[in-house]
Specification:
This protein is α+β, with helices and mostly antiparallel strands. The chain contains five helices and six strands; from the N terminus they run H-E-H-E-H-E-E-H-E-E-H. Strands 1, 2, 3, 4, 5 and 6 form a six-stranded antiparallel β-sheet that branches. The longest helix has about 50 residues, at about 140-190. The radius of gyration is 26 Å and the shape is elongated. It starts with a helix and ends with a helix.
Length: about 190
């Protein structure tokens, strides 16, 4: 249940598609997990479509994602994908929302290509894109679960140590305040 929720949260991030790519390949982010690269694997940003957009692009009512950004010199650009294309399916699976594409791209094996059915100028065409890097670990629940549990265990231990340290410091501060108050009370009685 927890793993499913976490997988869903991660899938909602633009990780696999690179919608928010960072400047350099060497950039790291707080998760410290190479399989959660902020750069993405194909370098495209897609968005869902309104009925008006579907009509304008002649896209079917039940599937299709509008390409809103293509990063230069990335797999999507090399495959010929363009802004304004509508991706209808990936690896034979219809795309109803961006999570569908994210899951397919994230799970693709290194060196494997994915066939995209693309609608351009009201004509359907096939493009092949080869994702960069290794598959995202979160696409493999068992491996992701093990990684996540390890990080949570390590984080929990560090948090507990910090809480214990703060408790010790608070006890010391309370002890000093009591000593000061007792000293002030005695001094006040003597005068």
């Amino acid at each position: 249940m927890v793993r499913t929720a976490i997988l869903s949260l991660l899938a909602a991030l633009p990780i696999a598609l690179g919608a928010s790519a960072r400047a350099g390949a060497g950039d790291h982010w707080p998760f410290d997990a190479p399989f959660l690269s902020p750069r993405g694997r194909i370098g495209v940003q897609v968005d869902g479509m309104t009925p008006e957009l579907r009509g304008y692009f002649h896209a079917p009512e039940d599937r299709g994602l509008l390409v809103v950004s293509v990063e230069p010199d990335r797999p999507a650009a090399r495959a010929g994908l363009r802004v304004g294309d509508v991706i209808l399916s990936a690896a034979g699976h219809p795309l109803r929302d961006s999570l569908d594409l994210i899951r397919i791209v994230a799970a693709a094996k290194a060196g494997a290509s994915i066939e995209l059915a693309v609608l351009r100028d009201a004509e359907e065409r096939a493009l092949r894109v080869e994702p960069e890097g290794e598959p995202s670990l979160w696409a493999e629940p068992e491996r992701f679960g093990a990684w996540f549990e390890e990080k949570m265990d390590r984080g929990s231990r560090a948090l507990l140590e910090r809480i214990e340290e703060l408790e010790r410091r608070l006890e010391e501060l309370e002890r000093r305040l009591e000593e000061r108050d007792q000293g002030t009370g005695e001094a006040a009685r003597e005068t």
